[in-house]
User: Fold these one by one.
Assistant:
Number 1:
Amino acid sequence: MEIAEHKTPARLRTLPSWLINQAAIRANRVTDQALADLGSRRHHFAMLAALEEFGPSSQADLGRCTAIDRSDVVAAIDALAEQGYVQRGPDPSDGRRNVITITAEGTGHLRRLGAVVAAAQDELLRSWSAAERDTLLDLLTRIVSKVP
Amino acid sequence: MEIAEHKTPARLRTLPSWLINQAAIRANRVTDQALADLGSRRHHFAMLAALEEFGPSSQADLGRCTAIDRSDVVAAIDALAEQGYVQRGPDPSDGRRNVITITAEGTGHLRRLGAVVAAAQDELLRSWSAAERDTLLDLLTRIVSKVP
DNA sequence: CACCATCGTTGGCAGAACCATCAATCTGAG
DNA sequence: CTCAGATTGATGGTTCTGCCAACGATGGTG
């Protein structure tokens, strides 16, 4: 008799913040799984991506450009350094800072991470056209880079 | 000399899952703040919205239609019952279930919550056209309601 | 010099998502 | 009818994330 319809209340189904959150849960699940298969997580990927694109950086800069709290950057760099993907050294020109440098192994690891992450995106957006993906990126970018 | 550019690495800036997550962080921040001002949180709003739309329901059904784990539904209903927004009673036709019913105070509270949540959406999507909002909802719905 | 900002680091917090388990109860196949 | 399996509410727990407060050390500025 009871057909399990799993119908979502309209109040939630049409609520942008709820939809964004549910989408994020799904998106994070697939990408986290992909990263975990290689023994990494989101923060690690973000750090390595920033280091490869911007070169050696301080932890504070890494945190700012990836929107990760300074205290969480410490833990991420700790793990990456222990895995040999990153090197941490003092900044000779500023005694407060560390200079984080990506290693050759780090670059290689980033390449592998990038591959599985890209595969995760394809799984998430399977059968989406390039135009639809662009539209999604544009809209989300407007939300993320809002200047109140 | 150093202009704080906060530039996001391209690898992240163009990554759907990263963008969705960042958007969710922002969206959750504004809506959580709005709900907290009235002493509630996301789970509470979802429960009340489901109860108003579908009428008295079991906790398992509430969890399914709002994508909240059964164990988390318990805590949410506990809080709502203590606040008098919901009434919990045994299901006479099924000894395993409870029947959760929204009270008059609950309906009133939901209305207030709905108002502040709507205001939060407007803050999040300030200066977005109706068409743009619809597009966003459509795209996100496709991600959320994917059947693998 | 005094003052304030910044940096790395530590420690901690709350919330969310999720999982395993349990006893009680219902359901359906035989 | 009986029994195996599924469902429900509940409890307890884990993990991760996004934060915040504070600290000592350092840098820059007046």
Number 2:
Amino acid sequence: MEYTVKQLGDLAGVSGRTLRYYDQIGLLKPHMVNESGYRIYGPKEVDRLQQILFYRELGVDLSTIKELLDSPDFNEQDALREHHRHLLAKRRQLDLLLQNVEQTLSALEGGKPMSDQEKFIGFKEKLIKENEEKYGQEVREKYGDDAVDASNAKLMGLTEDKYAEMQKLAEEIIASLVKAVGKERPEGPEGQRIAELHRKWLSFTWPNYSKAAHAGLAEMYVADERFTAYYDQHKKGAAQFLRDAITAYAK
Amino acid sequence: MEYTVKQLGDLAGVSGRTLRYYDQIGLLKPHMVNESGYRIYGPKEVDRLQQILFYRELGVDLSTIKELLDSPDFNEQDALREHHRHLLAKRRQLDLLLQNVEQTLSALEGGKPMSDQEKFIGFKEKLIKENEEKYGQEVREKYGDDAVDASNAKLMGLTEDKYAEMQKLAEEIIASLVKAVGKERPEGPEGQRIAELHRKWLSFTWPNYSKAAHAGLAEMYVADERFTAYYDQHKKGAAQFLRDAITAYAK
DNA sequence: ATAAGCCCTTACGTTACGTCAATGTCAAGG
DNA sequence: CCTTGACATTGACGTAACGTAAGGGCTTAT
């Protein structure tokens, strides 16, 4: 199919000005220009525009998009899979915001008041993005491993004794957290003891411990609702507390 | 608590420049300025910043935000409920985009090719916003249709056997819910079994299952009081439980 | 007392378009 | 055939929401 500026614009939900601008900066050149100067777009341009919009949706700036799409080793499949990952991350962030709204509402209606930190959970897009790039894979691998670990730890070389020890440790961490939240400070001695326990717990499955990775994981505890839910199921605010404790510990 | 520019910025995930800009345009004035000219923010400013960020996240421009927050009949509760609605809408749009990516991928891998229209589903934010009310109604009408569908499923190509099977499934879901609510956790094994049953049940009428859509429907179960009433008639809290179970399941 | 890390204001730069303005093109109807 | 109205074109200027750099004070730790 062939489209004029308006037609393609309507199709994709962008303005004519936008398409002319994209032409101007060389991001999306029309397939051809007819004798009276009209821009005519073909199927290849349609697909390219789709790619552009995927990137734009994720907040990538136009010059970067251009570089990416024009790079000789650009692979559409990989790009789409990346889009998918990032969209999922964005949805997780949205879910955090939804939780935040709900909590704020209930606090307003006389529920439990929120800490100032809690009031901004879900907004720090950039931090989450950066963290994901740095530690995301590590954490994801870890998370995947966790599931495996739990069900058949023997395969990973852990003896049953060790596994039991690990579980006991996990329980102690939770129990300590439940007691500490709201009473102790994360940077205080009890908070630091918990962080130390957590480091020990980690050492069962992490081949090599690093403070940076530990801090990154802690950040994940509040950024990824799966973790948050896990810790908060025993006591609300536990994930937050643990995060702060570890952050202080890793410094 | 009192905060300086940097402290509040770090807390909320915005830059110092941003806070100074907000001061400049009168959107967020500091509680006070100390003798050496430092901006000092108090608890009221923290809350106002939170409100600002909620609006900003939804794409409202700063001058409009200012008008809203300064309007004499501004009501925080209503605003939060609005935020909630819009965030849900945004999530629906994200789900559309996710589907789009998935379809594009499968088309690339030799699946069914997409029409040019389909290539841009999920991008037209503005249209979605405008049509939100319309869309919502459509969905609700669709729900009405679903009820009709269910009652005379033969028209939809379901054999009577299949239909009976479907009803049995529905009954099992209700029965399991009644037992589980208040005793089991939604993320626990029983909750997940119920979510799985629900997925199976859905598959009778949905042409293609997607986790995103499943989760979206679950959200509807608590957002639309007709759904809630349907599930809660047997046991209070059942809709909530089912929602949580499905949400965990779809992750 | 010197460095590090905050804070201030002023001011210019940037991105991704929106919005005129002045003008040419094209299909449809009276 | 002519007009009309919706489209198209190229400038050119405007804008929102900051980023960034320059030049200079304040506070705290070593």
